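step: validate -> pass
step: tokenize input -> pass
step: predict -> running
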Amino acid sequence: MTSAFKILPRYTYDDYCHWEGNWELIEGIPYAISPLPIPKHQAIANNLGAELRFALKKCKACKSYQPIDYKISEETVVGPDLLVVCGEITKKFLDFPPQLIAEILSPATEFKDRYTKFELYQQQKIKYYLLISPEAEEVEIYLLQNDAYKLDQKGRDFVYTFDFSECAAIIDFAEVFENT
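step: predict -> pass
step: emit ->
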């Protein structure tokens, strides 16, 4: 009797750079990002992006970004829905941990966002991880404490102060869900 192995291909950042369409690469495994987000997803991303941009307007060190490549290693490149980066990005991708990552959940990505990326971002010591549900119109804010994420706030109509390395951002989440 023989034993069968599964040999799965592993890809790298160089492979990723040649692919067409939208992809993420996690530990050498490619994940397609499709279809494009629904309008409510986009409205929430735009509203949160605008709130963060306004809150960080006077901060010289921190900026908010909507999807950019965050290259964690040669075999892991993700494209979070929204990031706050404190420091200068000198390459065509982010190569150091941001202060905040927000993922807007969809049926196709919720499991990956809640489990795979949750662990990945926790290992990278990203201070804040937000999971936003368009369907429930609520946000879960996880704060890194003692190298582990703890749920710090959950809901819809609340104001939260994010304390970044160089500045703070006060966000009214009722505004994030307005007109979505």
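step: describe -> The chain has one domain: 37-177.
step: cleanup -> pass
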